[in-house]
Amino acid sequence: MRTSSSYQHQRGMVLVICLIMLLLLTLTGLVAMQGSSLQEKMTSNSRDSEHAFLAAEAVLRDGEELIATSGATLTFAANGSNGLYDKMASGATATDWRDDTTIWRSGSAISGIADTPHYFVERLPEVINKGKSLEADTPLETTIIYRVTASAVGQTAHSRAVLQSTFRR
């Protein structure tokens, strides 16, 4: 008899325990989905940043190639007309890639990114190559140094990569 009475007192307890267990499983599933969603966003941002970096690196090489192939015939100006800045000219000002007035040159179009990458070139003061010649009548050699600044965005405009290289000719 006791067993019959004990079953009547426990009526519905199994249902309550099962509902609590189901609630715990549901919460565990929601936390796992939220973590997976966060990892997907991080992966997407990482891929976007990588695309921006690769595009900036490609357009940086475009600027270096421009200097290597036609550096002597390029016209540099203090105001940076056509994205070519002459830092040796009188009245030359500092060039900042964040400034809206900076004049850029367009690089090669790259598919899969949000905007065409661009760059500008600065011609820096000449450097004397000391120690090349010890002869009295031999003039010292000079080297022209250029600084190329490249900027590109990734698949979205939210990521940006800016790279600089120093190039001597």
From TrEMBL:
InterPro entries recorded: PilX/PilW_C, PilX_N_dom
Domain Type 4 fimbrial biogenesis protein PilX N-terminal: 11-61
Keywords: Membrane, Transmembrane, Transmembrane helix
PilX/PilW C-terminal domain segment(s): 82-169
TM ranges: 12-33
Protein name: PilX N-terminal domain-containing pilus assembly protein
Organism: Pseudaeromonas sharmana
